[in-house]
UniProtKB/TrEMBL annotation:
GO molecular function: hydrolase activity; metal ion binding; nuclease activity
Keyword Nucleus: yes
Cofactor (UniProt): a divalent metal cation
Protein's UniProt name: Uncharacterized protein
Cell compartments where the protein resides: Nucleus
Domain of life: Eukaryota
Length: 225
């Protein structure tokens, strides 16, 4: 989450999207497929939406630049988004007023709170319509992040075949590497699956060519060593 000196700038950047004030992050959960962890608690990892798969649920908060500001990756796929947030340290920081005059935006899977705003279930006037439209446009950041994150690290989309503790570590590591890629302005991977495969292959080829060119340079200067 943003430090105190960064909060005003974070709120300003969010307000530039759809004029929604005081927002410092958008929150949502995404499911990542895993193999059955086994043991007595295996069934709690079975996805509540698609019962054939085992998944873990990662709760993420992002900023307007699509950077991950907060991640909790230890919950099973059967856990509801609101349950994860209710038991999070993030909720506690808001309740202790660590972020005064700030709020998060979440979808209807979250409860309406003083610092967590959700869309209106029914629209009755123009003000409510504009509120919902601004909420949707601003919160779209988190949906875009999930797509970009999983395209950059396809293993998150196709599933992890590792033991549970290792899978959770990989998810958090992928979040850290994703933020580094954003900071370094790495190009976004393509949307199409075939294009994505070609992209990954080409990136691999470029790295191989770089290594070979470095060795060529080494041999060109070997007499000077």
């Amino acid at each position: 989450m943003p430090e105190q000196p960064q909060i005003i700038n974070t709120q300003y950047r969010f307000s530039q999207i759809a004029s929604f004030p005081r927002v410092i992050g958008c929150i949502d959960c995404t499911h990542i497929r895993i193999i059955s962890p086994g043991g007595n608690d295996a069934e709690v990892f079975r996805n509540r939406k698609r019962v054939l798969f085992y998944k873990c649920s990662s709760c993420i908060v992002c900023n307007s630049d699509l950077k991950i500001c907060n991640i909790v990756a230890r919950w099973p796929g059967s856990a509801h988004d609101s349950t994860i947030f209710a038991n999070s340290r993030l909720k506690a920081t808001f309740e202790t007023n660590e972020y005064p005059n700030c709020m998060l935006l979440g979808d209807s899977g979250y409860p309406l709170k003083r610092n967590l705003l959700t869309p209106l279930p029914a629209v009755r006037n123009r003000g409510q319509q504009l509120y919902n439209e601004a909420h949707i446009h601003t919160r779209n950041c988190i949906e875009r992040l999930f797509g970009t994150w999983k395209r950059r690290f396809p293993i998150l989309a196709y599933g992890l075949r590792l033991k549970l503790s290792t899978s959770l570590t990989v998810i958090v590591a992928a979040a850290v590497l994703y933020n580094i890629a954003i900071s370094m302005r790495e190009e976004e991977p393509p949307d199409d699956a075939a294009d994505q495969l070609n992209y990954l292959i080409e990136r691999g080829r470029l790295r191989v060519h770089l290594i070979r060119n470095q060795l060529v340079n080494y041999f060109e200067n070997i007499d000077n060593l």
